[in-house]
Write a structure and sequence with these properties.
Length: 185
């Protein structure tokens, strides 16, 4: 049977040696390693937002999608963002300074669970190191806390050292390392 997919991907915990050995034996290519991190909401203390974080409305989708495309190499970024928001029920927010988009964040308050999955945080290059990513993440923490969630999880590539430092400064803790593989079908 022929697969309708050109590329298949799988991610497993690095300490799952049996599965990883089986995947290696089947000629899958290892593509990345990501650090899984967790923020426990019982440590959350409400903070005062100095930047205006607002939900993404329809008219903001083109700008936010372009930002995600530029930062994460998304393809068909408007369709992808609309799909995440409308089909998967994810949430998104952004920060503007005047008329200029400075950053955006995408997360999933996973239904019927006690956790939130932080998916993507993007800041325009000229606005980095100004606290924008921190404010966006704090917005998600506040939102998750208001929904009585217990944890926020995220995955970050191991080579994104500055992002890992930021997440740890905010209060995320290292949980495990995941290994991603892919194979062309």
């Amino acid at each position: 049977m022929e697969s309708p997919f050109n590329l298949l991907r799988i991610t497993t915990p690095s300490n799952n040696t049996v599965t990883n050995a089986a995947i290696d034996g089947l000629c899958w290519k290892q593509t990345s390693q990501q650090l899984e991190m967790v923020y426990e909401l019982n440590q959350y203390e409400s903070s005062d937002h100095h930047l205006d974080v607002k939900p993404i409305e329809d008219q903001l989708i083109p700008d936010v999608a372009t930002l995600f495309e530029n930062v994460f190499n998304w393809h068909e970024s408007q369709n992808q963002l609309k799909h995440y928001l409308n089909e998967f029920g994810m949430d998104a927010a952004c920060i503007f300074e005047g008329e200029k988009l400075k950053g955006a964040i995408l997360w999933d308050a996973v239904e019927e669970t006690n956790f939130v999955r932080l998916e993507d945080v993007a800041v325009v290059p000229e606005a980095r190191r100004q606290g924008i990513a921190t404010k966006l993440i704090e917005h998600v923490i506040q939102d998750a806390s208001s929904q009585s969630k217990e944890d926020i999880f995220l995955a970050v590539d191991l080579d994104h050292v500055n992002a890992i430092k930021l997440y740890e400064k905010i209060g995320f803790k290292r949980n495990m390392i995941n290994v991603s593989y892919e194979i062309k079908s």
